[in-house]
UniProtKB/TrEMBL annotation:
This protein's name: Pectin lyase-like protein
Pfam families the record matches: SdrD_B, TIG
Domain IPT/TIG residues, every copy: 894-963
Residues that span the membrane, as ranges: none
Domain of life: Bacteria
A GO MF label: lyase activity
Keywords linked to the UniProt accession: Calcium, Cell projection, Lyase, Secreted, Signal
Broad EC category: lyase
Compartmental location: Cell projection; Secreted
Amino acid sequence: MNGPHDGNVDNGKLTVIARDVITGVPVLTFKYIVNENNVGDPQVELPEEERDPSLFPSLRPGASHSPVVAVGEASDTSQPVVSLPNGRYLVSVLAPGYKLGGNWVTTTGTDKTVEIKLHPNPLPLSRIRVHVFHDNRPVNGEDDVPLESGLEGFRVIITDAVGEVTVDYFGNPLGTEYERDASGNLILDPGTGKPVPVPGTGGKILTDSNGDALIDNLPPGKYGVQAIPPDGTDWIQTTTIEGTHTIDVWIEEGNDGYSPREGFRMPLVWIGFVRPMEFGPPRPWETGRITGRVRTIIEFIPPFRPLTLGDPVDRPWIALSDIGANDQQVYTGRGDGNGNFTIENVPPGLYQMAIWDEPLDHIISFRTVQVGRGETVAMGDIGIPRWFGYIKGTVFNDSNGNGVRDPGESGVPSVEVGTRFKDGSIQYRTITDMHGDYSLDEVFELERFAVAEVGFTRLGYTGATATPDYGIPVPDPVNPAVLCRDARGNYVRCSQTYTDVLTLAELTWAAKTNRIDWGKRVYKKGENGGISGMVYYATMRNETDPRYAIAEDYEPGIPNVTLNLYAAITDSDGKVVQGNLINTVTTEAWEHPTGCMDPDGNVDQNCTEVPNISNQIRPGGFDGGYAFETCWDPYYSHPDAVEIPLPSGTYIVEVVPPTGYKAIDRDGSVNTDQGDEFAGSAQTFLMRMAPPPYYPAPPGIDTTKKIVRVSEGLNATADFFLYTDVPIPGRIVGFLLDDVNLETNPGFIYYGEKRGIPNTPVGIRDFAGRLITTVHSDVNGIFEVLLPSTYTRNVPTPSGVAPGMYQVIGNDPGDPDNPNEHYNPNYQTLKMVFDVWPGKTTYADVALFPITAFVGTPGAQFSQPPQCAVPADTPQIFRVSRIQANVMHQNDDNRTVTILGTGFGDSPGKVTLNGKEIDILEWTDRLIRVLVPRGFNAVPPGPTQLLVTNAAGKTSPTGITFHLRRQGVYWPPVITVKKDGTQDFTTIQDAIDSAPDGAIIVVSAETYYENPILYKNVKLQGRGPGGIRPDGSAVAGTVIDGRFFLTYRDRWLDKLSGIEFDGPELVPPDRVKEISRGQVLTVVARAGAFSGAFRPQVDGFRITGARGEEGGGIYVNAHCSYLVISNNIIQSNGGGFGGAITIGTAYVGDNYNDNIYIHHNRILNNGGISLAGGIGIFNGADNYEIAYNDICGNYSAEYGGGISHYGYSPGGKIHHNRVLFNASFDEGAGVFVGGEQPVPPETLTAGSGEVDIYNNLIQGNLANDDGGGIRLLQPLDYRINIYNNVVVNNVSTDLGGGVALDDASNVVIVNNTIAKNITTATAEDSDGRPHGAGLVSEPHSAAFRAYLDVVHPGSPGYSDPVLFNNIFWDNRAGTFNQDLNNGRGGIGGIGAAGDPQPVNIMDLEVFGGPALFNPQYCSLSRSYDGGSNNIYVDPEFVSEYDTEVTAVAFNMEPDFKSVRIVTVDPELTGDYHLTGGSPVIDRGIDRVAGETETFNAPEKDFDGNTRPQGTGYDIGAYEHMLVP
């Protein structure tokens, strides 16, 4: 496991074969190379307690090089067989006419065969799409689609690893368009065979009126993209990926130029710009001022190191967006050279401040600023994090040779200083200035050691003095005795001097400085610097004479190569001939440093590469370097030889190529004409000369030796360049991380950083999506893979190299024939693309969005998704034996139904069809048999809801639709599906294709790996979702699992293209079929095809495994009115705009999806990237109904973790649902109701339409902004009725742990229980102050105020709901306190253990001003100045519980905090019914009168009991039932 050899040296024979991946035909002629597969091992196949942490990729010192073990070739007559010791290997194969490929093998002493599948040429070319946009709504560096407009006329340039790319693959200027025929195929010039350019095209890429640009016909590779504003304009770039104006982009063969990350089709590259903007003239006593200073955050790693601010940010940009009005930019200006800024004439309001710098070296950061009338807001020092660290120092003339720069020792100018990767390739370079000073100011936080070096072209070297964390004080160190003091008396890390070094290993973190001062000296009389150099791997071989070979920056060194030094003798003819061998060395090999010390003085012997260790400088060198500074006199290996300094003179240096390597020669090794052949998108092939598989060496030339003259006082250099016939592999070391959640467990190495996703598969696929191999992340989220690289050197780019490009699939499900056992249902599947170069390491971050909420469990190693289990005493229906019966059938057997499940109880309860009981034949805890009586007429024929209620009165949360058939009344045809072929069809899609409208398609209890498209007016009926009983026994159900969509994506697209359906209102007819991909079930329809007479339905399934673009489990496109989605378990699906169920699409006008009914489903652990988590309801879903569902553990990276109503869909009803433990990274964790964001933002949204929200349990939800339980955002003046809900134990990190209102002027909140909710004031846009935790309202936006002034003059300037008969109890407003939890931080003011701060209860708040609500007949925790007839009492619930949360601040970004609900059992806790002595009983009112309307209390309570039960209405959601 720790290398290629596992102790057993018995060799087995490995046979290498190759096949064409498309045809399967053997490829007989090829060459191969075998390399050690020396990567870390996560050991996921072992129980965690049996794993060896020293092998984890995150803890094992990473290899820089993979040794070549064997090379060989195959021909028509010989099959290669190689003998290998036991171990792990990668076999790479190169065959003429094929893309380089490979496969992995582990040998165990027995004979094996490894098969490599090769993709034939030509390969498709690629595209880059770029979108440049006005980043003003708000200013945040992100493209807030569709609110921000594109920018025209920006010039787009691209670069590769060496320089600017100016031509496409065909050699014509970028932007050249080509003649095509009527079918879109390229037209070739009959003379040249090349495509025919369209005259007048090419030469400059400019964005169009939409801000879009296309760069077409590119070879695969990694490119940098930059957008240049038009001349004479003042646009300021806000967008960066990793701290530069250039945006990196990776494209594999055939890439279409769209991003795989977004929930909808977005260009690969998007770049935002803003313009300077000032406020208007001052208005005395009205406008205010904002001042502050921007500084760099040097350090913040709680609890180990507190916040430390460094130098001011030079001339920072400051932008304000009016988030209290319409989220639009209102100011952009610049600070001075000391980071100071003053913003004058600021109107009163609430603003989001964005802060960044011109070179984009700092990460754009945000603050929320509230400015009152005439107020000066002094923000003081504002820390913002930096992308880069620094390496700086001097090169000095070390006259006394002690390696320390002493007073009077001068600097040495024009000396090259830089860093290399540990493989020896160049990372950064600079030269010292006239004073000998140097500074590398943009050292990227690689999170891995690299190697600093000083040039050795002249002068001798004495050593180096190194100071990690230079200039950073260490407050309260753990081990002060091992630290030093600076001039101010602060503890600091000590400097250390290393003698006789030219290189040092360094680990540099963002914003911190590693200082290295390099000592040099003038040689004494008779001295010289010897012979030194590198042995490079010659990736690019374009020199026809090896004497003139020079290294490219991307070429690595080769370690452990032998070099021999010979005396040189001049013979009588004046020729230099080889003399005795006088020395031999091997090239240096990277060794991971040891003996590191952190700033507190703690020693980490293994030098683990994690942030807590901080900067490090240790002895170390890179691969490939060598030096001859001495020789053996009289010659090497002489018994009396003496080692002496190398005298001046002439020598011969010889390199001895290791196994499989060759030295470059005069012409046979040139590879600039080698490479894959590529074709344009038209599938018309441009043929190039195919390279031979290898070249013979020219006779009579020894290319392994160089004659070197060593002169007094100088340093001699001799570099060598080796290659292999088959290029050596490269590797990817990646971090699979949670993109929104922090690691809150201090026992993990990334504590306080983005959470690593453990034990999760990472698929490596080729450009066609074929799965090549799968690796796994380790317990810390790190993965590593060795991959075949590339042999393509013939592309017209500055580097000439097209690197190997791979799709890296985070959380890859595998293929149907080879599913990944460790596929993680809690995260999305994400396709990224990365480059692989010969001998190099690519570092990759693969950031996944979670598709489930997480809760903390005391003592648990990880936060876990809530299990959302059904209580053991509650019935669950897993499967039924039949789903239909002819009520007139003579045979009772044909009307008998067997129900399998659990929780039925031993005593009979009842089974009902639409509430009417049917006969019980047999009843056990696991099995029920029932009979539909002949002629049963208690319920009319048709689809009915079957439910089980046990003797204790508990009813199953889901049921099954049971069809009562009767000829002449309800007699739909029944079509059956079973995979073994014994029924009508073997796949669901085949059954749909063949079914007539009005049919029932019954699917057997099996798992179907397919992604059906439902496009007919049929009922898709499963037999139940299946399940697992408490004893672990399983009952199979009908499961549709869409996880393998990547495998059959093309077949799905072909099926979709053959279906005729209509699209939303604003989608052009020619784009109707550009719909979401990857969802499990897609529903499309022609206009008017679906009706209420026979409602299309999806019922009785478990739907799982989706990782869709827009939709997840079920995506309902348009014109799908009357659809019913019922009795399903929809679990572990991910989509862009909704994880479980997505009804329509945002921003396309009316989707025509009216009268949709979603009931009795369990919607669990699904997630969306944008707008919705569990259920997403988008424009034009009028009169929808969401009822009797369990909606638990879902997650949205934006709005609506549980339910999101987004857009205008009047008449919606959300009732009798349990909305539990959902989360959103933005607003509305439980239920979100809002209008679409208006375009442009200063206009008014269309609103939401009327919605009723009633009789829901909304508990344990967490929003990372406003509205933990319910969030209303811009419903406008449409009536939103909120009544009989239990809204408890929810958390908001900003406003309204229970309920938050914004631009909602017509809200009625009656008879709700809103209790024990929390706010934490930790959201990124929070002002850090405690805010209302029960109900909060905000001031209206400017557009809505203007509307109300016309339509409803005199309306309040904030959302002022009708409030009566509500309980507001113990809603707690907290703030973040870094001192809690031993300095790790926590939420103060909510009653947390160890918090000295008193509990801060804040039930109600009108944010942003002195206004008050008008609660009537409510029960409140504290006295409140507004309202009337309220009481201030403990409502005395049956049981309540305090919500506990954890909170961790992101290392280096203290304003980004992760909050997690902690619960011992992540299920329902607390009973918020009233006890008999509750003081709120009979204290409510039956109605209240408004100015123009009387508002009635609901006639029934949460449980369906009639109100009132006593002399008056009870306050809250429950009416207390009097016991007779």
